[in-house]
Automatic annotation (TrEMBL):
Tagged with keyword Transferase: no
Name recorded for this polypeptide: Outer envelope pore protein 21, chloroplastic
Its job: Voltage-dependent rectifying anion channel that facilitates the translocation between chloroplast and cytoplasm of phosphorylated carbohydrates such as triosephosphate, 3-phosphoglycerate and inorganic phosphate (Pi) depending of ATP to triosephosphate ratio in the plastidial intermembrane space; in high triosephosphate/ATP conditions (e.g. photosynthesis), export of triosphosphate from chloroplast (outward rectifying channels), but in high ATP/triosephosphate conditions (e.g. dark phase), import of phosphosolutes (inward rectifying channels).
Domain of life of the source: Eukaryota
Membrane spanning residue stretches: none
Record has Methyltransferase as a keyword: no
Keywords: Chloroplast, Ion transport, Membrane, Plastid, Plastid outer membrane, Porin, Transmembrane, Transmembrane beta strand, Transport
Compartments, as annotated in UniProt: Plastid, Chloroplast outer membrane; Plastid, Etioplast membrane
GO molecular function, one term: voltage-gated monoatomic anion channel activity
GO cellular component labels: chloroplast outer membrane; etioplast membrane; pore complex
Any one GO BP annotation for this protein: regulation of monoatomic anion transport
Family membership noted in the UniProt record: Belongs to the plastid outer envelope porin OEP21 (TC 1.B.29) family.
Recorded topology in the membrane: Multi-pass membrane protein
Length: 173
């Protein structure tokens, strides 16, 4: 099981107050290309779960793509169905630079309320930046919200920010 501490001054999903959350993720592999992921998050500010989800993901390594479908329940007591996809276009043969296109589509339990998200990213991965340390920098654009964002990721931590002033930090335990 993967666990992390997450602190934010608002997130991309909801405009919540600053809070520390404990996040856990478990992956069950059916084969090397298919996995079932479970996510759970406990908000320490309110002392209750803020998010639980399950998603079936399938990876298509020959195409540099992945697809997923799942269900999630959030602290607003909303049940959502989700579909997601991602495609990477390598820019360099060593994998250092790539252009990514990704999208997600949420549906409410009655299949009436719909919320699409889509983004494009330029990603730079620096392997062995220092001994046993990889760094990834992504500069992206959320197409539907028309919002640029930045992600800096290292082996144990991630920093995300956008131009609306929302940010979060994740530390993997």
């Amino acid at each position: 099981m993967e666990t992390s501490l997450r602190y934010s001054g608002g997130s991309k999903r909801t405009l919540r107050e600053e809070s520390l959350r404990i996040h856990a993720k478990q992956k069950l592999f059916f084969d090397p290309k298919t996995q079932l992921q479970f996510h759970g998050e406990l908000d320490t500010r309110i002392g209750a779960p803020s998010h639980v989800s399950a998603i079936l993901r399938h990876f298509l390594p020959d195409l540099g793509a992945s697809l997923g479908a799942g269900v999630q329940y959030d602290k607003q007591e909303k049940l959502l169905y989700s579909l997601r996809g991602k495609k990477a276009f390598p820019i360099t043969s060593d994998g250092m630079f790539s252009f990514n296109v990704k999208g997600r589509y949420h549906l409410d339990k009655d299949l009436k309320e719909r919320k699409p998200t889509a983004a494009t990213e330029l990603s730079c991965s620096i392997f062995n930046f220092q001994k046993d340390q990889d760094v990834r920098i992504k500069v992206g654009y959320e197409v539907i919200d028309k919002l640029p964002y930045l992600q800096i990721r290292e082996n144990n931590w991630t920093f995300n920010a956008d131009l609306k002033g929302r940010w979060n930090v994740r530390y993997d335990l």
